[in-house]
Write a structure and sequence with these properties.
Mean pLDDT: 92
Radius of gyration: 19 Å
CATH topology: Inosine-uridine Nucleoside N-ribohydrolase, Chain A
Structural class: alpha/beta
Strand content: 5-15%
CATH superfamily: Ribonucleoside hydrolase-like
Distance between the termini: 35 Å
CATH class: Alpha Beta
Pfam family, one: IU_nuc_hydro
Low-confidence stretches: 1-11, 13-28
Number of strands: 9
Helix content: 25-40%
Enzyme class: hydrolase
Shape: globular
Strand order of the largest sheet: 3-2-1-4-5-6-9-7-8
Protein name: Inosine-uridine preferring nucleoside hydrolase
GO molecular function, one term: purine nucleosidase activity
Organism: Candidatus Burkholderia verschuerenii
Length: 373
């Protein structure tokens, strides 16, 4: 157990709850207070305003008030195919008004290793499972893409550097300073580590949304989508000495999107914004289908780990074998086994939901575009 809050933290929560976090203090549109803030990269299987899009909106609002420095948004196939996700990420940076501050970097279109025959068999065996991009037709050109509710980006382009190369270069530029919010299949990050193993001791930490430690999976019976999608990439990273924290299904299963929270975002007292309008479109009725919140917990934990009211730690490994055990996380509480992580990894099992939702709603209803201070 960890202490829940400090006096200063209560004040920040109050600001977030009233939508004032991004409007407190002075500043101007060319503000750069964020440049000295803690540095992060988001590596995401991006969606317009599902969990990845919500995470991005929250993070850029924190960036506006100098609480975090988002160095870049990397995209990887997971929820959808890369081309679709890139289009949605480009629109997101325009929607938030950060296109001159946050670049979008295209990454891997396929996992490091995969067996399509096995994937199709798993899909047939788990008809209620969520298999992300494998459930969709792969687009090959712009005309195959579905536009976000507010249309495609009008001017923003992908950065020329590939996601893995961007990670390598950025970590070397800021040694021991960069946290990776790993909220998709970690193919890009694993590729970076494989290509440039010298960055391993230079990465400050990884915070994942992924895995299922002691609960059923949401893809096949044992695997959570992000880690099921590319278990070889996960295993590559677990076997490093990078400090790592996992926010698995064990805790996200306990953070449901309720009708009350939904309504407080789509009908805020301060008036609708581009984010709340798209949120309404993307999440209409989600509370009625037992939808939980996932990736947004990572930025909350990064911003202040007291959101995690209960954690455990263990040596972790993952089954990379194609089939019904693919993505199964192996948890060793006491003694590491061959192939498992060389050090214990913390994973979160309980969140401070009340304060999280104040934080969540406050940031998602703040003014758009982001006001920089």
């Amino acid at each position: 157990m960890r202490p829940l809050r400090t006096a200063g933290w209560v004040m920040l929560l109050a600001l977030a709850a009233t939508g004032a976090l991004s409007s407190c203090g002075g500043g101007s549109d060319d503000g750069s207070a964020y440049l000295d803030a803690p540095k992060i990269i988001i590596d995401s299987d991006f969606n317009t305003m599902g969990d990845d899009g919500q995470l991005f909106a929250m993070t850029t609002q924190l960036m506006g008030v100098g609480k975090v420095n988002l160095l870049g948004l990397c995209v990887v196939t997971g929820n959808d195919w890369l081309l679709q996700e890139e289009a949605e990420a480009l629109k997101a940076v325009e929607r938030m008004g950060v296109q001159t501050r946050v670049g979008v970097y295209g990454g891997a279109n396929f996992p490091l290793q995969y067996d399509v025959t096995s994937i199709r068999e798993q899909m047939r065996a788990n008809p209620n499972g969520y298999f992300g991009a494998w459930m969709r037709t792969q687009p090959t050109q712009q005309s195959d893409l579905t536009p976000p509710p507010d249309g495609f980006a009008t001017s923003t382009q992908l950065q020329p550097e590939a996601a893995a190369d961007f990670i390598i270069d950025t970590v070397k530029r800021y040694p021991h300073q960069v946290t990776i919010l790993e909220v998709g299949p970690p193919t890009n990050l694993a590729t970076a580590v494989i290509e440039a193993p010298e960055i391993v001791p230079l990465i400050k930490q990884i915070i994942y949304m992924g895995g299922a430690m002691n609960v059923p999976g949401n893809a096949n019976a044992v695997g959570e989508l992000n880690w099921w999608f590319d278990p070889t990439a996960v295993r590559t990273l677990l076997q490093t000495t990078i400090p790592q924290t996992v926010i698995p299904l064990d805790v996200t299963n306990t953070v449901p999107l309720t009708e009350s929270v939904y309504n407080s975002i789509v009908n805020p007292p301060t008036g609708q914004t581009a984010v709340t309008k798209v949120y309404a479109s993307a999440n209409a009725g989600a509370f009625a289908t037992n939808t939980d919140l996932y990736d947004t917990l990572t930025i909350s934990y990064f911003f202040n780990p007291v959101f995690a009211t209960q954690t455990q730690s263990a040596y972790l490994d993952i089954d990379t074998t194609p089939g019904e055990d693919q993505g199964h996380v192996k948890v060793y509480p006491d003694m590491p086994q061959a192939g498992a992580s060389p050090r214990k990894i913390t994973y979160v099992t309980r969140f401070d939901n009340d304060n999280f939702f104040k934080f969540y709603v406050g940031l998602l209803t703040d003014p758009v575009p982001v006001m920089f201070h």
